[in-house]
Amino acid sequence: MESAPSAQDIFAVLWHCQAVENLKLPKVGNQDRVDLVAAFMVDHFSKLRRIQFVSAGSESGDVLPFKVIESMRGQWLEELNYCGPGYALGLPLATTLFQRHSDTLRQLTFEGCRSVDSDSIRIILSECKALEEFCVHGSEGNCLRLADAVSADWVSTKVLRLSLTIGFTDLQTLYPDQKPYYKRDSPLKLFAEETQQFELLARFYEQVGKLKQLEFLDLRVQHFHAHGHPLNKPYATVSFPGFLNMPDKRTGRPGYLQLLAGLTKLKELRGSVSADLDETKRTMGWREVVFMDENFSDLRVAEFYPISAVLRRPFRWLVAQRYHPGSAPLSLSGGS
User: Fold this and answer.
1) Which InterPro entries does the record cross-reference, listed alphabetically (predicted)?
2) Residue 166: what are its φ and ψ, rounded to 5°?
3) Which pLDDT score, from 0 to 100, does residue 91 have?
4) Does pTM top 0.85 for this prediction?
5) Number of domains composing the chain
6) What is the residue range of 260's domain?
7) CA 55 to CA 61: how far, in whole Å?
C-alpha cells in the first residue's frame, strides 16, 4: 500500500504553488499532518479561492479542506469540490464555514459523500447569497429532509445548477392497505398525513420555482419508511407527488407544475421526474405538456422516459413541437 507523504514532502511541493487561486488539496494521513498543512496553507496561500479535494477514506485526513476553509479570511472562498465518503461535517462546523464565506461562495459540489447532512444543506441554501451551482449526492439516506428544505428561504437568486436529493416519508408504508392518492375515487379525500406532506411539498416546489436563472435541475427522491429508515429505491423509479402535474379540480388531485412557470431558462430536467410510472401515467398528460411547451422553450433534456421506451402521445407531441424552425431539439430519454 502506498504510504502517505510526510508533512515535509507536502510543504516542499506547496512552497512552489503559493500564487495559485485554484488547488487540488493533497491527501494527508493523520490529524497532526492535517493541522500542519492547514496552518501552512493559511499562512502562505493568500490568493487561494477554489479548492478541490478527493477523499482518501480517512476521517482524520478528510477534514483538511474544512480546516483550511475555517482558517481562511472571511468572504474569500469561491468554490469547493469535494469527492468521496469524507468527513461528517455537522451543523456547528457547517454554520461556521458557510456563514464565513456566504457572500463569495459560488460553487459547492459534494459527490458520493456523507460530509453534509440535512442541517448542513439547509444552512448553505439559507446563507450563501452568491451561490450559482450546488450539487449534493451522497450515500443512501444522506439528503435534504423535506421539512428542512422549507424551514427557511433560499437566499441566492443566482442559482444556475441545482442537484439535490430530497428525503421524505413514503406514506404507503404508513397505511399499506390503502390505495395511493392517485388511484382513489374522486372527489379525492386525503389523509391528514398526506395533507401535511403535500403542504410541505408545495412550499418546496415554490422554493424551486423562484430560482429563475436555473438552467440545470436534478432533484432525486429518497424515501423513508414510516419507522424512519431509508428505503432502497432507485431514484428513477419514484416521483415527487404533484411536482410535474397541474391541479385537477374535477378529481381534487393536487398539482403544482404552475409554480415552475418562472423557470423559463431551464435546459435540463433530471432526477425523479419519470413520466412512465404508475403515478405519473395518471397525473401527467396534455395539460402538462402544453404548459411545458409554453414555459420551458429552452428545455433540451428531460428524463421522462428510459432509453428506448415508447412515449405516450402527449409527449410525442411535445418532442414534435421542437422540430419547428428556431426551436431547440428535445430529448425525453434519461440517457441523453
Assistant:
1) LRR_dom_sf (IPR032675)
2) -110, 130
3) 87
4) yes
5) 1
6) 140-333
7) 8
